[in-house]
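Record 1 of the preview.
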Amino acid sequence: MPPGEVRLDPEEDTDAGVFDIYETQDGPRTVGNPVRRRILARMAGRELTVPEMIAVTRLTKSTLSTHLALLYKERFVGYREDPNDRRKKRYYLISRRICSGRPHDPASIPASDGPAALGVAGGVPKALLRSLIAELRSAGLDLHPVLRETGRRVGELAGRGGAVEGAQGWAKRATSFWEENGLGRLEVVEDGTDPVVTVRECRLCCEGPGATHMMCTLTAGLLEGMASETFRTAIEAIEEGQERETDGCGCTFRLRAWRPAAEV
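->
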């Protein structure tokens, strides 16, 4: 299986550490146990009695009963009486699988000399991205960390274009990247030692319900990655404000050399 790919069939997945995230009535829950992953996968879209579940999961009755009781207790599944035989229960999902994952593996990240290898140069399907983020957010997932890290990685690739002359050279490179990829228009103002960057006509924010601030997190990551790669020091992008504009949003960030909290 290629690095970074997750099989969707828990029945055949033998990779250690793979897990599923489900949306439940009590919020997101992770299922890493391979037996419980298999049971939930076989119940998708249908109701099953215990004998039917044994047939499709190939588990013994005692093993199935133990794991099914736990899944019921943690509100992954519910049941109702079988209308044709009240001695039987028909089990069904009361949760929804959101995604699957595996432990982070840095080796799975493709090497590249620029953002084109990630497909960003051809344009980002931004409406789809916003909808996906809004959907995951509604399921109770906090995507800020992964969005910021994703932005940083893309920004680092975009910053590998050779040396530039100071803040003005970096600003020129960043401005070109934003415009070439349809992300908006950058304005960079030097305010003392901390440059202030405003993304005008921002195409990532202000257009997706529930996803706006998360998209700003992605933008912050892009800025941090490009600046950190260019100046070879850790840069933090601090969001200072946002205002709606005719063609999107104006999002303002202050770029600051990262300092431990004790030094701030």
